Amino acid sequence: MRLTKPRIEPVTPNKLREVQLDLFGEVQSPALNVTRLWAIHPKLMAAQRNLQRHIFRDLTISQRLRELAILRIGWLCKSGYELAQHAEFGRRAGLDSNDLARITEGPSGDGWTQLESAVIRAVDEMFEDAFIGTDTWETLREELDEQQLLDLLSVVGRYWCVSVILNSTGVQLEENARAFEDHISKHGRIQK
Fold first, then answer.
1. How far apart are CA 31 and CA 80, in angstroms?
2. Which 3 state secondary structure label does DSSP give 183?
3. Distance, C-alpha 115 to centroid of its chain
4. What is the CB neighbour count within 10 angstroms for residue 6?
5. Of 76, 118, 139, 185, whose CB count within 10 A is highest?
6. Nearest residue to 105 via CA among 173, 163, 184, 25
7. pTM
């Protein structure tokens, strides 16, 4: 975590409930700190809901590739909150401790498939140059169609934005959450 306390204090769980009922007619569980932050700006919270739903319900790439991309952009942005949350999502998508450790090594880490390596390299290139290079693009095109490529680009862009917001506002981990490093500490391979 870059900050030890929030610069913007998230709303209370009761206020979050009130905002969600007003906006969506339902309450989202659990009341995560990131969701409580979004509730400060209900119009923004509502505006981003469709993209978030698409990413988690209708994405044309696998959950595993989605989580590799999110974790890699979170790592590059040094977003402790994003990494901790998506280490859990990654585990549900089939990532193990070795996969999580390899996120820190990048596309050349031992054990990635050709597609996984290309996805991670694409994230690196987007982060460094706001552009996916020709070689990486062609490797991705071997296995992904145009909708899948657009979904991949959208996931990386979305989670770059989320990482920047989390870092800059100082959203803190939930009390019972495990830090990303705790998910992979037995491997001792984290490079900062």
1. 18
2. helix
3. 19
4. 14
5. 118
6. 184
7. 0.93
Which residues are within 8 A (CB) of 66 and not within 5 positions of it... i.e. 6 or more apart? 55, 59, 93, 155
> If you count them, how many residues does the chain have?
192
Q: What is the pLDDT along the chain (192 residues), one digit of tens a residue?
A: 889 999 999 999 999 999 999 999 999 878 999 999 999 999 999 999 999 999 999 999 999 999 999 999 999 999 999 999 999 999 999 999 999 999 999 999 999 999 999 999 999 999 999 999 999 999 999 999 999 999 999 999 999 999 999 999 999 999 888 899 888 865 545 444
DSSP sequence for 118-154: HHHHHHHHHHHHSS--HHHHHHHHHH--HHHHHHHHH
